[in-house]
Design brief:
heterodimer; A: alpha/beta; Rossmann fold; Coagulation Factor XIII, Chain A, domain 1; six-stranded mixed sheet; 8 helices; B: about 290 residues; globular
């Protein structure tokens, strides 16, 4: 395999503080956005780059796409690099779709002849055929995004750098875009670097993953392992019994989350959960000063961050949801019957809502739950793909 | 930046090497050649978009100088009674104004490159000089329309026998080149400095007005006398405007020594501008 990209001890430091004013020019405080990053990429690889906000992902992309220069290290590349940090860069609202395809294509590095030869395909892919001679200021935002992505999708560069652009557009277009990227990489001639916060799309596109943390490259390799580390799954089983004292309790000025538990019937908090356990998610809320209606919503997320299900106290009447007066402690308990979950890991978010509309507090990743299989391994009879849920439902079997 | 790698990795041929320790060694001619399509599309964008949704369209390019000349005629000619060296006043002002606008537009457009394209520059890389040059070319095209107005008026007076042009007219391309280099050089320097010091944005308009009055546009150099006259000649634009007027109208000061000074000044200014621009384009996105 041939190397197409070689990064050596790459670093970028920014000067912090105010620029330009009199008296502050001499202040030379620097912050390292990227430090000692080294890696190599071979032809045909699709590399995902993940990390929290401020980890240095954007800085790395900016350096690779030559938007700004590094303060340390060397970047070597073979072939043309195209960066797609945004769709439709440089498109002008007063120009028609046709004129913008040419302008945007040229800005991305295509020649006029190249764009001309691919023009029909680009327009067909965007689905904007009927409006191609209309100024794009009359386009809907979705159409603009589709047109912009379509131009980029036909780039002929050897190395393509993509930043979060798939996060735009509706679900249908997103899946079309992912299909297109898979198609582009299918012949192994193109190399893609892909930054995303959506672990599901990283998982479906990439065959290798880089994890950045505080400007440093802390993991390079297998996607699943990188995602697990990113999610903080080094401690697989998190505490299922959480209690906070007054001072440190999460919440806002009005409501505090004082306790949260996952209770499994007949099990201690330390014993591993099995899919055949019926469990209760419990939270205790203290009303510090207000006495409005307070609702709780639990969101169930997959390990990769997909939103799977939600449940809330909305359907409960005001009288039933006894007014939680000032100083009251209210216990909310949500029962989940046995045999719903699959042998997998889930995350639970908790939202506090006031008067059925205002989110007063949001607690992401309140719990991380892993379930072990009960009895037979479900995979042995459910096929290869693992579903998020494996509920036991009622079957009617009649012999006729 | 796009240099063949000689030191490290001899066994591999890299197309692009970005080294934090080495400064870029730009080949602007190659950049221009490789990005000629982008250049032409950016110029086209500038020209097409300005007059979309206007009724008069490019006619505005002619209305502006006509209005300005009318104002000059009444304020400086009639009210202040400033001499026009025996040249018909309308033609006198139009000559000075056309060439002054050539300088001022190029300077303003190129000074604005980083701020005007900040969004594109933050998302996509292409040689930044392309954007500066596109701004200059599109203003040159717009000015060509104003030049044609000037030529029509000039030919009218020529046929009437009111003026007597001379052979120095063949040096017109040189005059235009010197004016363009002065405008571009000054503009590139300002563009590089505005990235860090936004104050300069306010200085440009006022500064241009000061230079306008220090340049013999609305008055002939011949009425400026003594030490004021000497001071005026240090303005590199003054000898050029006078020389242009001398060759087109037969009236004016033509001093080859001061012209040589202008040319040298222009080349030096352009070179400084180019170097500052190259230095700025590396990291301006962090500052802007």
């Amino acid at each position: 395999m041939s190397k197409v990209l070689q990064i050596e001890n790459l670093g970028k430091s920014y000067q912090i503080g105010e620029y330009g004013g009199i008296g502050v020019q001499n202040q030379n405080e620097n912050i390292d956005a990227l430090q000692n990053v080294s890696f190599e990429v071979n032809r045909g690889e699709v590399v995902g780059i993940i990390g929290k906000n401020g980890a240095g992902k954007s800085t790395l992309l900016k350096l690779l796409s030559q938007i700004t220069m590094p303060t340390a290290g060397i970047i070597r590349a073979k072939g043309k690099i195209a960066s797609l940090l945004e769709v439709g860069t440089g498109m002008h609202p007063d120009l028609t779709g046709r004129e913008n395809v040419f302008l945007n294509g040229a800005i991305l590095g295509m020649s006029k002849a190249e764009i001309k030869s691919k023009f029909d395909e680009i327009v067909r892919f965007s689905g904007c055929e009927a409006f191609i001679d209309t100024p794009i200021k009359r386009y809907s935002s979705g159409m603009k995004v589709r047109l912009g992505f379509s131009v980029a999708a036909f780039l002929d560069s050897e190395i393509i750098i993509i930043d979060e652009v798939l996060a735009v557009g509706d679900a249908e277009f997103q899946s079309k875009a992912i299909q297109k990227i898979l198609e582009i990489t299918a012949d192994g001639a193109k190399t893609i670097l892909f930054v995303s916060h959506n672990m599901a799309s990283v998982k479906s596109l990439c065959n290798r993953c880089l994890l950045l943390e505080k400007g440093k490259l802390i993991y390079d390799g297998d996607i699943d392992k990188a995602i697990s580390r990113y999610m903080g799954y080094d401690t697989q089983m998190s505490d299922r019994n959480k209690v906070w004292i007054t001072g440190s309790a999460p919440g806002n000025a009005d409501y505090k989350l004082r306790a949260a538990r996952i209770v499994a019937k007949g099990k201690t908090f330390e014993e591993p959960l099995s899919t055949s356990d019926s469990i209760a998610i419990e939270v205790e809320i203290e009303s510090v000063q207000k006495a409005e209606r307070l609702d709780i919503t639990f969101q169930l997320m997959s390990e990769a961050g997909d939103f799977l299900a939600a449940t809330s106290t909305f359907q409960i009447s005001d009288s039933e949801l006894k007014a939680n007066k000032e100083g009251n402690m209210t216990l909310f308990s949500c029962l989940i019957p046995a045999n719903i979950f699959n042998q997998s890991t889930y995350r639970i978010n908790c939202l506090l809502l006031e008067n059925r509309k205002t989110v007063v507090h949001r607690f992401d990743d309140l719990f991380k739950l892993g379930f072990t299989a009960a009895g037979r391994n479900p995979e042995s009879w459910m096929g290869q793909a693992k579903s998020h849920f494996l509920p036991h439902l009622n079957w009617n079997i009649t012999v006729k | 930046m796009r240099t063949p790698d000689s030191s490290a990795n001899q066994d591999e041929s890299w197309d692009l090497i970005i080294d934090a320790k080495k400064s870029s060694n730009r080949n602007h001619f190659k950049d221009f050649f490789n990005n000629r399509d982008l250049l032409s599309l950016l110029v086209k964008r500038d020209l097409v978009t300005i007059y979309k949704q206007t009724i008069l369209g490019p006619l505005w390019l002619l209305i502006q100088p006509v209005l300005k000349v009318a104002i000059f005629y009444f304020v400086f000619g009639k009210l202040a009674g400033i001499s026009t060296d025996g040249v018909p006043a309308v033609l006198f002002y139009l000559t000075g104004l056309t060439f002054w606008e050539f300088f001022a537009t190029i300077l303003k457009k190129s000074a604005d490159v980083f701020t005007a394209n900040q969004h594109i520059f933050g998302k996509v890389y292409f040689p930044r000089m392309i954007a500066a040059f596109a701004a200059v070319v599109s203003s040159a095209v717009k000015l060509a329309i104003q030049f044609s107005l000037f030529f029509i008026v000039w030919i009218y007076y020529l046929v009437q026998g009111a003026i007597s042009p001379n052979l120095f007219l063949i040096a017109l391309p040189v005059f235009l080149l010197i004016i363009a280099l002065l405008g571009l050089g000054g503009g590139l320097i300002l563009s590089a400095l505005t990235v860090k010091y936004r104050d300069l944005r306010f200085v440009i308009d006022t500064g241009l007005q000061v230079i306008f009055y220090l340049t013999p546009v609305i008055y002939p150099l011949s009425i400026a006398q003594g030490s004021f006259f000497n001071a005026l000649l240090f303005n590199p634009l003054a000898p050029i405007i006078e020389a242009v007027r001398y060759s087109f109208l037969g009236q004016g000061v033509f001093d080859s020594m001061f012209l040589a000074y202008s040319a040298l000044f222009a080349i030096l200014l352009f070179w400084i501008g180019l170097k500052l621009f190259e230095k700025t384009e590396r990291n301006f996105i962090d500052t802007i």
